[in-house]
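pinging the channel bc i need a second pair of eyes. not urgent but kinda urgent?? the chain im working w is below, pasted from the shared doc
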Amino acid sequence: MVTGKSCSRWLAPFMALLMIVSLSGCFDKEGDQRKAFIDFLQHTVMRSGERLPTLTADQKKQFGPFVSDYAILYGFAHQMDQAIDNGIRPVVDSVNHIRAPQDYMTQRDMLRQANGALGVLSQQVQNAKAQADNARNELRQPDDLKAVFDNAWQKVVADPAAAFEPVIPAAQTLTQQLVLVGDFIQQQGDKVGFANGGIQFPTSQQASQYNSLIGPLASQHQAFSQAWDSLNRVTQ
């Protein structure tokens, strides 16, 4: 006959074994989640020419606690995409529409509005970078994940943030000058004429003022184009 006491002695090693198996299963699960996330960083996040995707329900399940690690990268990338799409790209489109002197007038309102928003845009990106930095500093990642995550961080956060920084002042300088040209032409009223892609003024003084306004545009446009191209290279 097996007494309750002897039964407890018999069950104790068995329960301990179950706990070991259970704990081992937890450790294996975390390892699988980490491996899945590392693979995702290497083969999806590090690919060029594509924006970061939102995670599917299945991916969230596969990555487990590392979903929050990805959220840091995705959050900054999403805000950077918005800054480019809503703040910088409209400037590029408007500048590209200026092909003749009268276009300075038709584009000036849009450029004036864009110029006013660029300062706020710069602050938004700086805040997004600071928020991402703080979140990253709180991470405690195993060495194998940290090495891959650091590479992804450089591509998704550090490089775009650095490339974005010179775009804003270059865009502000160019848009401000373009608005000045448009305003000047508008102020001349019907005293100016347009023919064969050029502009004609009734007096040499007006022509001289116009030339002084458009004089800096070539170098300003070059500076903005270079900054914009650099940003495109690191965000694609």
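so Strands lie at 193-195, 198-200. and The CA atoms of residues 65 and 118 lie 37 Å apart. — does that match what u expected or am i reading it wrong
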